Amino acid sequence: MKKRKYWTGEGAPRRWKGRCGRNGLAALCCLMLLLIAAPAALAEEEGDELQLPAVDVVAKSVIEGNVVDGFGSTTTVVSREQIEALNAVDLPEALRRVPGVTISRHNHVGSWGGGEGGAVFIRGMGSSRPGSEIKTYIDGVPMYMGPWNHPLMDLLPVDAAESLEVAKGPQPQKYGNSLSAVNMRVKRHRGDGSATSLRMYAGSYGTMGESIEHEGGDEDFNYYLGQGYVRSDGHRKDSWGNKLGYYANLGFGLSDNWDLSVLALGTTNRSSDPGPDTAGGVSDGTYGTNAQLLSATLSHDHGLFDGEFKFFVNTGEGNWKDQAGTDDDCLNDFTFYGVRLKETAHPWQGADLTVGLDVDAWQSTIHFTYDNRADRYVNPDDYYLTMPYVSASQLIGDREGWFAQPSLGMRYYEHNEYDSETAPFAGLVFGYADTEAHVSVSRGVVYPGHDVIAAIWVPFGGAETLEAETTDHFEAGVSQRFGDMATADVTYFHDDGRNRYVVNAGAWSNVEKYDIHGWEFTLTLTPTDNFSVFAGLTTQETTPDDLPYAPATTLSGGFTWRFLEDFTLNMDCEYVDEMYAMSQARVNNAANLQEVDSHFVTNARVGWDFESEILGGGELYLAVENLLDEEYAYKPNYPMPGINGTIGLKLNF
Question: What pLDDT score does 326 carry?
């Protein structure tokens, strides 16, 4: 097969292959996949000869949809159905087809570290290390690597996810101290009764996994308990990984107006870096993570007023051992705790007036060990960040006809080590019935973390003089719904970033700037109850033009087809343009010369729903990844797996 080319030398061409030709090929391949299934699906619905019993409408393909809130901000939602259809075992796999999202990884199971070994990037954001513009949350609680101020994908066990929410750009009305965000909603019981599910699966490269869940209760008390484990030898030597997650989500109905929910969650993970597949390539060791989270939320709804109070604490570790073939280790402990307070009033028809307060505190310990048995400890002072905010919106008219919803607000930041900041935001959502347009402006703020203290490669310090990184975000778009049959969206986005902290003349300094702008197009079609299809396109331009994991063009698509009453076929595909890779160094004027080639990857999953007197209800499924055996990589000289498969059984009791 053709040898993959990776440009690493100075002056390597940015777009050395014909983009139009490759984009056209990707679009044609996606279209062919859809055309294979569409005629049969339509015939099954409309044909005279084959009359099948009515079935529920199939789940949407790839994403559940794009949600525009009252402030004109866009969030893409991936539901549990899409996560299972993608056969995803971790967060990057679950988000890999979301328009505007790019991922990195080099293991079949598990995310090695928080950079090119396992990360997500949203519209060009998230490429800087240490530190990151993207933050990750579990039910609104921050969960990421505190000492180095960036996410670790394995800290969010995807088996526990009811849905994933991708906030595309700063949304100060929801999240503080971030420029983009991923929030994982944990499964919870709804309704009355109880249920149990068991899933077992095995696949290529010695991959094996299982999960078990049990839920039950009523409006006075309910619970959802779950556990999941997966491990794999990996597709290359020393590319193994394993992941364990467990959770309990409890709900208490205190009265007609008050509720209490308690979430406990834990995860333990470990993976190995296989090293580059070149002569003399050396592994960069292993990366192990674990975390425990506890949060309690007291919420109320009194009609004219509703709100919630949330307290949380989480602790964890991220340990990088045997770095670059040595015995050097970097051992990191972190603790987060804080509160979320939010109260919304509805004083008259269509009005929402909100006041809120977010308080975050985090502690870190960094322990470096070396071949010569020397130790170095970094114990930075605790950080405290207080973030009050206010917002107001007013719905004018009726969403069944003409309507407009203007909004505005402000978030204030008070840090115990750095200067205070403000983040204003405003938006307008307007339209007529099934036609909706939105415009929003917002400022994102993200503070330096303990990374600027722990970074041993900055001998002259300068951390105390830093300011927060800020981004001014503009977004405008239009959505058109065609009843229950189709939804089309188009969005323009622009981010103007400044004060990115980097090493300049031997010390930390706020000197870096960047500019990102582009377009997103999505289309969801559900022409029949048994067939749903999705297509998404993202184009973007960046300054500087070597921002990692910010491809000029990505194209994703997929379909879900229910056939022969009990069978479901899911197919998804994605084309990613050639792009710069590796993490953006926090060094002034650092050039990024490493690229990976474009790729087009297709996956498929077919499932059979069955009923059995012995086993109860369930599904037997077969999933095939990289169906066309594409050669590709997210990191130079780190090839991803070729065609591989998984067979699984899910039982419902």
Answer: 80
Distance, in Å, from the CA atom of 446 to the CA atom of 469, rounded to the nearest integer, reads 5
Write the DSSP string, 262-292: EEEEEEEEEEE----SSTT-----EEEEEEE
Residue among 135, 165, 19 at smallest CA distance from 551: 19
Distance, first Cα to last Cα, the chain: 47
CA 62 to CA 263: how far, in whole Å? Answer: 28
Mark 271-285 as b/e (b = at least 16 C-beta within 10 Å).
bbbbbbeeeeeebbb
Tokens matching residue 364: 């870190």
CB burial readout 440-462, b (16+ within 10 A) else e:
bbbbbbbbbbbbbbbbeebeeeb
Q: Which residues contact 127 (CB under 8 A, 6 or more apart)?
A: 121, 547, 548, 549, 550, 583, 584
pLDDT digits (tens, 9 = 90+) for 15-42: 333 334 444 444 444 444 444 444 444 4
Judge contact between 225 and 251, C-beta under 8 A: no
How many Å apart are CA 175 and CA 393, to the nearest integer?
A: 18
Model pLDDT, residue 374: 80
Angle (CA) 28 29 31, round 5°: 65
- Does residue 611 contact residue 20 with C-beta atoms inside 8 Å? no
- The predicted pLDDT at position 324 comes to 81
Task: Count CA within 13 A, CB hemisphere, residue 551.
Answer: 25
* 130 prior amide bond cis, ω within 30: yes
Identify the three-state secondary structure at position 452: helix
- At residue 24, φ and ψ (nearest 5 deg) are -65, -40
At 43, the amino acid letter reads A
pLDDT at 27: 43
Q: Examine residue 551 and say whether the peptide bond preceding it is cis (omega within 30 degrees of 0).
A: no
CA 570 to CA 82: how far, in whole Å? 9
Which residue do the tokens 């048995």 mark? 373
- Residue 28 burial (C-beta neighbours within 10 Å; 0-12, 13-18, 19+): exposed
Which segments in the chain show pLDDT lower than 70? 1-56, 456-457, 460
Residue pair 136/155 in contact by the 8 Å Cβ criterion: yes
Q: DSSP alpha helices (H): ranges in 47-139?
A: 80-85, 91-95
DSSP-derived secondary structure letter, 433: T
Q: Which residues contact 600 (CB under 8 A, 6 or more apart)?
A: 22, 25, 26, 29, 573, 574, 575, 576, 628, 630
Evaluate whether 123 touches 493 at the Cβ level (below 8 Å). Answer: yes
Whether 365 contacts 454, CB under 8 Å: no
d(CA 649, CA 200): 5
| CA distance to 192, 349, 354, per residue, from 427 (Å) | 39, 19, 15
The predicted pLDDT at position 529 comes to: 93
Return the pLDDT at 367. 93
Give all domains of the chain, ordered by start, each with its CATH number: 19-273+292-318+441-652 (2.40.170.20)
Give pLDDT, residue 596.
96
**Alpha carbon distances (Å) from 28 to 38, 202, 555:** 15, 32, 11
Residue 39, classed as helix, strand or coil, is helix
H or E element at residue 43: helix 19-46
Reference 508, options 447, 586, 417, 415; nearest CA is: 586
Tell me the pLDDT tens digit for each residue of 522-578.
999 999 999 999 999 999 999 999 999 999 999 999 999 999 999 999 999 999 999
Nearest residue to 71 via CA among 427, 410, 444? 427
